[in-house]
């Protein structure tokens, strides 16, 4: 699974330009006798057979896109003006390396300490330097409206701890890709790789009107607020297991689903931690309101420093998130979908 | 209707935790001959088959509340709002958790300084440590304000008139109507206070020609609300405009004509505040003509909302009038 994550993390897929990610997933699935389809918007639907047939549709979602920047203009001396795609804090951008989707690389401008920096960086203050002198040259190399992402290599740092970009939500994508390719699942399942989550859950909105399903799991990469959390406050940490949502800004998870997850965790001895209630939002909020109401759960891999140039995650969390999803499916099946239908 | 209202107001049911309210509604209606439609989101719909046009009446069954998110070292609980809760109005009040534990809504230096943000709120349940606090109230547990239902003559005070008043009105009508040849839906929807989520779900499949949303509306006749004509004791509100919706003039006119004919006291309810489920219903599918009928209530979303039974009765008369003489489909 870590290999999928490595490949996926290094691909370029800002919201709206998920081709590289989609093509990678398609290539992996092709020839495995697994049916899949795409919609006009770029969502990818994978229908994987399970050991058993059930008379409801179970869907698992992960989004393919990541946050990034988009070129909005040029200065006369050849710098690129940019705006964010999704939630990017301009304060963390200066001096990071950006790679545009046509492969051109650039560095975000920053003020050297010698000049005594006392400004708060805003998008209006920063530009991307691609090493050219003239506006025309810059335009030719990176056309207006082209998207870019952080240029970060995937690397192992410590014992089981990996560094990379876009773990939100390539971690989720890697997990469900691994479920499709490497695992036997208890019943037929629809896996959906969505687009444009970071810009407003748009792919999920289209996907959930296109296909019918009764039950949904969202697999995400979520924030672990280390090391900045106040000592006495609770925050999810990496290495302590998947993060399960009870309630976020967009979704209140049905208690029956929570009890299924708890049961699976207990039975198979899988560690997990709660997400801080009423923080964040995912595709789950959108999905739960469709198809006459869908019981929706969110399970996420905790990652440090998400939405930045480099995030850190723990391999065990990745493995346990997959395990928790799989075992919850088994428990639900064993109990014959009690309380769900 | 007063008895039903009291029973409903005494039930615990913040957004996402409406189970007991739903159960009560089913209990009350069990002897009536409605077809029951339930969706997986928790919305509960009763259908009476009959002559078109089919009319739907909706009321949300949830109320605002708070959720425990953590405890501090000293054993105070931290919380976040479920819906639009004003922390300064709750300060000093008691809150009751789902498991019956009662705590005090306090905060750092709350006696001297107004609590402005939820990050300053501390719920005191008398625990001595973080462990003890979270053992008694676990993370994610919901609570509502603890404020008893009061009825003096026709004056009602309760924490959750929004929208148990609307729910009790629909239930009262459902119990009253006998065999009737009219296509009617009575919709009890969930999770309105956290962003009209229930309405978003049911409005995509509800097959009604007209939808009437019954909800409460803040009056403009006190010094605590922005001043406007809408007031207590002036009868049923016909909403013309709010923060999210402009209602069809045809329906406003139809209701006002109906009110004259049936001798019902009505008032227009207009402003740029508040929002109702009609926001989603109006734009669902290819657009469903819908309007909000409002019950004037003072101090909504506070521990003590204030309402007159007379106003509720006028709204009920208006709903009965609509059932008797529905608007025509062009």
What is the oligomer described by this structure?
heterodimer
Distance between the termini of chain B: 35 Å
| Main sheet makeup of chain A | 8 strands, mixed
Shape, principal axes of CA atoms of chain B = globular
Question: Considering DSSP H and I runs of 4 or more, what fraction of the residues of chain A is helical?
Answer: 25-40%
Number of helices of chain A: 8
- Arithmetic mean pLDDT of chain A: 93
Structural class of chain A, please?
alpha+beta
Q: Give the CA-based shape of chain A.
A: globular
What does this structure look like?
- The complex is a heterodimer of chains A (341) and B (330).
- Chain A is built from eight helices and 17 strands.
- Chain A is α+β, with helices and mostly antiparallel strands.
- In chain A, the strands form three sheets. Chain A has an eight-stranded mixed β-sheet, sandwiched between helices.
- Chain A is globular and about 65 Å long.
- The mean pLDDT of chain A is 93.
- By secondary structure, chain B is an alpha+beta fold.
- In chain B, helix 1 packs across helix 5, helix 5 packs across helix 9 and helix 7 crosses helix 9.
- The radius of gyration of chain B is 20 Å and the shape is globular.
- Chains A and B meet through loops of A and strand 4, strand 5 and helix 6 of B.
Annotation keywords:
heterodimer; A: 341 residues; alpha+beta; 8-stranded mixed beta sheet; 6-stranded antiparallel beta barrel; 17 strands; globular; B: 330 residues; 6-stranded antiparallel beta sheet
